[in-house]
Amino acid sequence: MSTLSSRHPGCDSCIAVYDLDCSPWTFDFANFLYCASHHFLSLGFNRFKVFIVLPSPRISLYQPWISTQGYTFRSASDTLRRVQALLMPLSSLFPGVANAQVFYTRKDMLKELNIHSRIFPAGYFAHFPLRLPPKLPYNYVYTNGIEDSIQLSDSDLLTAAEYLENIGITHQFVCITDRNQIFTPERNLDYKLLSDLAALITQVGLQSLIIPDKEISSNEYPAGAIIATEAFYNISLRAAIYQLAFFNYFPSTGPVVLAMFNPNVDFCCPLYHSTEKILEYHIKETGYNTALPSPWNTRFRHVASKVNDKRMALRIFSSMLKHKASLYSIHPY
Questions:
Q1: What is the CATH number of domain 154-327?
Q2: Is 36 in contact with 120 (CB distance < 8 Å)?
Q3: What pLDDT, on the 0 to 100 scale, is given for residue 219?
Q4: Domain ranges, ordered by start, for the chain
C-alpha cells in the first residue's frame, strides 16, 4: 500500500472531532478514522488532526443513546485511560492522522479551532455534538475501497514476529480472537466452538493462537493453543499479529476492524448471533444488508454472513481455511 503524504501545507486546518458524549470509546473509532481520512482526501488533504473530547459528567441528551448501546458513563480518569489504551493507538495505525489530542471539555477544544478549520463530521459544533452517521462507513467503502487505511511499519511486524517466537509460535498459525463480555453474550465464543476451531486448525497443519478478551481471562482454552495475552492491551501488537497470521477467525467483536481496514489480513467473521434482529437493525440504521456481498468480502476476506448458528460459522471458517491451505500447499502433519 502507498503511504499518504501531505499535498497541502494547510492540512493543520483539517480537524476530525470525536466527541465521547455521543460516540463510544470502542474499536468503532476505526470507522470514524476511516471516514475522516476519505472525507479530507475528497477535499484534497491527505493529513488531518484528531481531537478527542472526553464525555461530560452530566447526563446529556446524548448519553441515553450511549446507554442503549451497552456503554455506561465512566469517570474522566477511567475514560482517559481507555482513550490512551485504545483510541490513541488506533489513531497511530491510520497514516492520514497527523496527530491526536485529548480535551477534557469542548470549551478547551474550541480554543484550538478557528474560522479556517475544516471540521469532520460535517455539522458538528460545540452545542450539538454529532455522532458518525451509521451509513457513512459503507458509503465510503463502496466508493473508495479500503486501500490506504491501516498501515503497519516493518518495525511493528518485526516486533510482533519476535513476540510470537518467544511465546512458542514455530510455524504458520491461525489467530482466533476471543470474546467474553456481559454485553450481548450471544456474541461470545464458547468453549465448544473454540475447541472445534482449534482442532480444525491442527488438522490442517497450523498452530492455534488465541487473543483473549481480558488480560486475565476466566475462559478455559483448548490444550495446545498458544495464548497471546499481551495482544489484549497492545493494539499495534494485535494488529501486527493479525497481519502475520495465515488466517484469522473473529466472532462479532470490535477488534475485527483491524482486519477489515487492513487489506493484508485474511479473515472470517460470521455474524451468527440473533441474525434476523441484527440484520433488521443494521439495515434500518445503515441502509445496507450485510448478508449481501460487500467490498470487504473477497476470496479470503469474509465479513458478515447470514449465519443461523455457530455450527454454520464453523463450516464457513473450515471451507475458507482449507481452500487457502490447499493453494499454499500446506498439508496436515
A1: 3.40.50.2000
A2: yes
A3: 64
A4: 9-144, 154-327
